[in-house]
């Protein structure tokens, strides 16, 4: 009786070699290195700057007052701790799969399955939920520009408050993103880069318009609720930074990944934090902080009040639509690459690791993701389920931070294009901050998360461990 238990424990603890692993029958290993530093940086920015910055102020400002500017900096620093841990691992283990592959190479197969499940939850639910949000804002833009909106019957899911039949715009968005991804990674990266530049331009346009109404006295009562309010708001704002890990999923499609991926992660973090702080300062200076309470679509309302017309808010709506499109594209990309890595390692069917020889993309994998995401986005109201996106990301952040320490101890001479500054304090702080934020999540989120992990682990025990490429057969 002891031998099977020992065999299972060894299976769960075995590690994927840092420099490669066997490829299961039916899988391939031919992703092309086409992405340079700029496009990788735009991947990070594209997956991070989403609806959060457009709509976070009515929630965060009442918690912190004008000191919400400090909250943005603290949240950026917290995300930065995890980001630079990702940067070191990406330079040492430059393969597809992000935190999944890093944990497989450092903590073993069992933890890799856990992290892989977390990432699939994060990206899968995010793709569907964000698509639903895109449908809503596209509808609003259509009403502003053309004077009509898409009927609720085909723009909202069954069991939603609108009582629709299917969310057709959300399905269309998923289909467009899938077509772009199947067409080629380089082409998708170009489209994403254009959309990122546009949405950053829209946010900077807001900052310029808001600065014309800037009043220094709006900062007089700077921190009305003290540091507790600042830290509480930082926890809320943190979720506007989730997505910086997207860069590391492109480990096998990046040129000179040991250097370009760390640089892209750090560059994306600096760009996102800089833009967020500029927008926050402009917003807080343009109106009293008390006015943010319950102010739906706050940035658009501020622009309307300053300009006296709806042109500015319409442009902001365009920015929100483009922003969500970009996020959907990148999150779908990330999910397909996680599935590719797990399929190649034998923990999922090898179909997920097959690459189209013409486009050098996992086309079948992408179509499966598109069908599932479209079904969720079109038929299921995901408002509550979308909260699980954050817990998946935070779990991955913690595992990556721990993996940095483990890999330093286990393989100190492994070449690293980037090393975490302040080691080992930095990864320890990253674990502490992410853990603190996780503790504030709703009990319902933890229940959904635990249920999903149970499903993933049962699949591993029944199927995955028997087909792992590390079995040698």
From TrEMBL:
<feature type="transmembrane region" description="Helical">
    <location>
        <begin position="420"/>
        <end position="438"/>
    </location>
</feature>
<keyword id="KW-1133">Transmembrane helix</keyword>
<feature type="transmembrane region" description="Helical">
    <location>
        <begin position="67"/>
        <end position="89"/>
    </location>
</feature>
<feature type="transmembrane region" description="Helical">
    <location>
        <begin position="444"/>
        <end position="463"/>
    </location>
</feature>
<feature type="transmembrane region" description="Helical">
    <location>
        <begin position="110"/>
        <end position="134"/>
    </location>
</feature>
<dbReference type="Pfam" id="PF13520">
    <property type="entry name" value="AA_permease_2"/>
</dbReference>
<feature type="transmembrane region" description="Helical">
    <location>
        <begin position="222"/>
        <end position="244"/>
    </location>
</feature>
<feature type="transmembrane region" description="Helical">
    <location>
        <begin position="40"/>
        <end position="61"/>
    </location>
</feature>
<keyword id="KW-0472">Membrane</keyword>
<feature type="transmembrane region" description="Helical">
    <location>
        <begin position="196"/>
        <end position="216"/>
    </location>
</feature>
<feature type="transmembrane region" description="Helical">
    <location>
        <begin position="363"/>
        <end position="382"/>
    </location>
</feature>
<keyword id="KW-0812">Transmembrane</keyword>
<dbReference type="GO" id="GO:0016020">
    <property type="term" value="C:membrane"/>
</dbReference>
<feature type="transmembrane region" description="Helical">
    <location>
        <begin position="264"/>
        <end position="284"/>
    </location>
</feature>
<feature type="transmembrane region" description="Helical">
    <location>
        <begin position="388"/>
        <end position="408"/>
    </location>
</feature>
<feature type="transmembrane region" description="Helical">
    <location>
        <begin position="165"/>
        <end position="184"/>
    </location>
</feature>
<feature type="transmembrane region" description="Helical">
    <location>
        <begin position="315"/>
        <end position="334"/>
    </location>
</feature>
<dbReference type="InterPro" id="IPR002293">
    <property type="entry name" value="AA/rel_permease1"/>
</dbReference>
<dbReference type="GO" id="GO:0015171">
    <property type="term" value="F:amino acid transmembrane transporter activity"/>
</dbReference>
<protein>
    <submittedName>
        <fullName>Amino acid permease</fullName>
    </submittedName>
</protein>
